[in-house]
Amino acid sequence: MAQSEQLSRWRLILGSETEESFTGMGGGVLSQEELLMDGALSAIYGGPGEGFGSGSPGGAGRGPSSPVISKWLGDLRSLFDPEIVAVVQNDAIERKGLKQLLLEPELLEGLEPDLNLASTLLMLKDQIPKKSKESARKFIRKIVEEINKMLENDVRRAVTAALNRRAHSPLPSASAIDFPYTIRRNLQNYNPELNAVIPERVWFFDRSSKINRWHIILDIDQSGSMGQSIIYSSVLSCVLASMSAVKTSVVAFDTQIMDLTPLCADPVDLLFGFQMGGGTDIAKSIAYCQELVESPAKTLFFLISDLYEGGNRAALLRRVEELKTSGVTVVVLLAIADGGKPFYDPETARRIAAMGIPCFACAPERLPELLERTLKGQSLEGLTSQKG
Description:
By secondary structure, the protein is of the alpha/beta class. It has 16 helices and 12 strands. It has 3 domains: 3-136, no CATH class; 152-164 and 210-387, von Willebrand factor, type A domain (Rossmann fold), CATH 3.40.50; 168-205, no CATH class.
């Protein structure tokens, strides 16, 4: 790399206030493209006098207009790779408080899909103006579709392998057609001329699959730290709910309890059913889930939480132990924070793990393997990114 190019890169890194120093060194002169990069980055990372709307007649404190942010987003996406764009977008929210990014439809459409922004958007969903709601759903759906591509086939394969039966039977029978699922999976084949969905594939119920099937209960903490975990859990929940080989229940909790099972037809609907933030009463939610258990030996209970109990921790521990003692298979999945790092109350996690209950953070791409091993009654050793 030529010295002039190295100096230009250092000039971009250190900001416009260093331009005079670099010029004195015989370098640091930026090309037109590099000047655009400098402006896009200075809007977020620049010093006094730099940033959105600096020197504008609107004056300080009013914030940038939507057209200014739209241009900045356009420059950002054209100049940098998607990974860098996602980082800068998140910094824009945190450093500049640009909630406009998430509340204006034209701005939402220009955002690079990102888990952190999706989590923030879900927390702000009650503040989203009516004109932006559809754009917000489209933004969330982009994230959901990416996760679905990663998980769906493997989750279906894992459950099928574990239960040794098909989610849908390959034997054609008109009376056994799963019409709702077949229609959902073929919506992209809608023919406006015929005003009908032309299915590429038809799914049939396996009449034997509902006999003595497993019941999977997902008890999901919806406190503010749970954003990424909630998104992954919602996609997983909807994939499981679409399989007739298992029965799926989805419960969300803070200090109140919401049974979200009826929303499992669509992961975006399910996500918008969560009310992120607020306190936490884990024991109360487990008590509700205990009432859902019909056959303990065929019940798999996932507690997905950071384990920071705002209620009675002794009651939480007692409830978890009661579930395990009754024959329910209990697994605790710890919250995943920025960068995939586990975030949890170590003392509560330690005490649950001491009961012989798996308590760990699992990488999302390993959730199918976790399901298969658990349904087969196999050890979960090796799946943990950090044990409780």
